[in-house]
UniProtKB/TrEMBL annotation:
InterPro entries: Homeodomain-like_sf (IPR009057), HTH-type_TetR-like_transc_reg (IPR050109), HTH_TetR (IPR001647), Tet_transcr_reg_TetR-rel_C_sf (IPR036271). Transmembrane segments: none annotated. It comes from the Bacteria. Keywords: DNA-binding. It comes from Actinomadura fibrosa. Residues 13-73 form the HTH tetR-type domain. Signal peptide: none annotated. It holds the Pfam family TetR_N. Residues 36-55 bind DNA. This is TetR/AcrR family transcriptional regulator.
Amino acid sequence: MTRNAADGNGKVSEARSRLFDTATRIFYTEGIHSVGVDRIIAEAQVTRATLYRHFAGKEDLVLAYLDRADEMMRGQVAAAQAASGSPVEAVRAVARSIAEGIQSQGFRGCAFLNAAAEFPDPAHPVHQTVLRHRQWFLDTVTDLLARIGDAPADADGRHLVMLRDGAMAAGCLFDPALIADTFLQGVEGIVQSRLQAAPVD
């Protein structure tokens, strides 16, 4: 079955949701390789048959976990953009949403960077999923920055992604409020640089 399996009425079963929610929590807080399916099954209080009825195996469950993280990030960015009245405010809003995440309870870094560290083989499906998510995020922030001024935005987009990566890594090692503030200052520096480079009418 696919990792979007549902019951006959098109609704995701309660057991599948419990299994998926348990796996998502443990994968994020403790890592992927260190967690076996027996632990997930036990904590979700489901049978092994239930797991394999909804997921082909652990790898399929990991991919579903990353799919959820991707959907959440896309929704977060879309909401930030929708609430903004200008490209500048959109970039700032996206940055603030990331900063808020870094300061949230239970923050353990970026799910995708964490997964990439555990699955370094570029050909592995998990690594490929990470790369697709990162390409989407890079494309998204580069497009937002391109709307500020007329200068090419590729380098600024990469700069913002690197700032975000550093903040996500440092946010669970040092004071998250300080890291978030430093990140926001860095993004503001990119914004101001593009504003100053914009031609004056």
